[in-house]
Design a protein that fits this description.
single chain, alpha+beta, six-stranded mixed beta sheet, five-stranded mixed beta sheet, 16 strands
């Protein structure tokens, strides 16, 4: 009889959690994050940062720290400490606390550099929500607030709860003690219920029919991979001239380019997402340095997908799965749509089950992906307002990536902001610029060309 990974985990968890009410089980995504940490000792954990600019002096750090503690009192996910217990991954409930740290940029260092340095030094001990307030001499009238959450405690739906919760607690000056008295045991019970419902959904999506589906998906033959950029090539779009690599970026592990384009009139998320998957696949498939190219197979694109399980309270937490997309025809939108809709029917199957299913079918795939794609609808996220001032969201290059390429798309009411980061240890800047131009050109073909693709921010950063 087949015992799936979720069932096996729950049996192990039950053995260590009996009589210990401070312990909670982890979702499939959390289990994966914790496993990655154990395997990648010395590597910074995956965090989710949001950056907001305020006029200097707007933010009161002590008041903000109390607001963060208040938010943690209301949302148990922000009070959890992730651990392993002989050696079962668990969440351990701790006391609510706020964490605000001032950062002063070093001589010649920008605010973005100071924040990147702090994120690279992130340690897992301590609160999962941390706020970093950074200043530098290059912009003396501004300060940047980084709202940073351990990804094991946060998904996209949680971001709106965080910005809204911080805004309210800061405005109302609510103390953590008041918030905890108000939320109390109910909040903890709702969080546990949501985690248990998520695990039930993952267990139900790990039946033999689901595993057979994913094994079949990875048994598909690889494509005839298109040629990559010729030696010395430059991006073809005249609106994106190649930029020299500044000397100071040589030791910077991450590059980033970005591009804004109008949102199509019918730009619903369900139609937009397969277009993005198709464009990302077209961009990474020909890259000479990619594992997919060397193995002569289709590229694998990972993307987060999910939400609160049916019947669960709207709690803050990590209720997602990494779904895998592969296509034998990069750039073919019809084929991408067909495959994506089929995949969504099996999107609750935990990624570690998908890896096991693929390998049982003869694949040598280890579980790594060629690119990661995220799409955030910023219209669902309330702004962050502190002291009556609404922070201006900005996008900074983060620390080293977990995949060769990462594409992040922010959808507002009128436009898409497309950002592509790449790991400079796995992809050189020339290849990355070629890939980004291919991505934007393919996306224009799917969604319709833009009046002007020129973007002065689309340079190496």
């Amino acid at each position: 009889m087949h015992i799936n990974i979720t069932e096996s985990y729950l049996a192990q968890y039950g053995g260590v959690a009996a009589g210990r009410p401070d312990l909670h089980p982890v979702t499939g995504a959390q289990r994966r994050f914790l496993t990655m940490r154990r395997l990648a000792v010395g590597t910074a954990p995956i965090v989710v940062p949001l950056y907001f600019e305020f006029p200097r002096g707007t933010v009161d750090p002590a008041r903000l720290e109390e607001a963060a503690a208040c938010l943690a009192a209301r949302h148990p996910a922000l009070r959890m400490r992730f651990d392993t217990d002989a050696p079962v991954p668990v969440q351990r409930l701790a006391e609510p606390e706020g964490h605000v740290r001032r950062l002063a940029a070093r001589a010649g260092e920008s605010t973005a550099d100071a924040l990147r340095r702090a994120l690279l030094a992130w340690v897992t001990e301590g609160p999962v929500l941390r706020l970093l307030l950074a200043t530098s001499d290059d912009r003396p009238d501004h300060e940047t607030l980084a709202v940073v959450v351990d990804h094991a405690a946060c998904d996209e739906q949680s971001l709106g709860l965080i910005t809204d919760g911080l805004t309210r607690a800061y405005r109302d000056r609510t103390s953590a003690r008041e918030a905890r008295a108000d939320a109390g045991r109910r909040a903890v019970e709702e969080y546990r219920d949501a985690v248990e419902r998520q695990l039930a959904a993952e267990r139900a999506a790990s039946e033999p029919r689901d595993l057979d589906y994913w094994a079949g998906r990875f048994a598909d033959p690889g494509p005839t991979v298109p040629a990559g950029p010729p030696e010395g090539a430059r991006p073809t779009g005249a609106s994106r001239p190649a930029a020299p690599v500044p000397a100071e970026t040589i030791d910077d592990p991450t590059g980033m380019v970005k591009h804004r384009r109008p949102l199509p009139a019918d730009g619903a998320r369900t139609g937009l997402f397969p277009a993005l998957l198709s464009a990302v696949a077209a961009a990474v498939a020909p890259l000479p340095s990619s594992v997919a190219k060397r193995q002569g197979r289709a590229p694998l694109i990972g993307y987060p997908w999910g939400g609160r399980p049916l019947g669960a309270a709207p709690v803050l937490g990590c209720f997602l799965n990494t779904v895998l997309f592969t296509t034998a025809a990069p750039g073919d939108l019809d084929e991408a749509c067909d495959r994506w809709w089929d995949d969504i029917d099996h999107a609750d199957t935990p990624v570690d089950e998908v890896v096991r299913a693929a390998r049982s079918g003869g694949s040598r795939w280890s579980g790594t992906v060629d690119a990661l794609l995220t799409l955030e609808d910023t219209t669902r996220r309330p702004p962050l307002e502190l002291g009556g001032v609404e922070g201006v969201e900005t996008h900074l290059r983060g620390p080293a990536l977990q995949s060769p390429v990462a594409v992040s798309v922010s959808q507002s009411r009128r436009e898409l902001l497309v950002r592509m980061g790449w790991n400079r240890h796995q992809l050189d800047d020339r290849e990355a610029r070629w890939a980004f131009d291919t991505l934007c050109t393919t996306l224009d073909g799917h969604l319709g060309p833009t009046p002007d693709r020129t973007d002065p921010t689309a340079s190496l950063r």
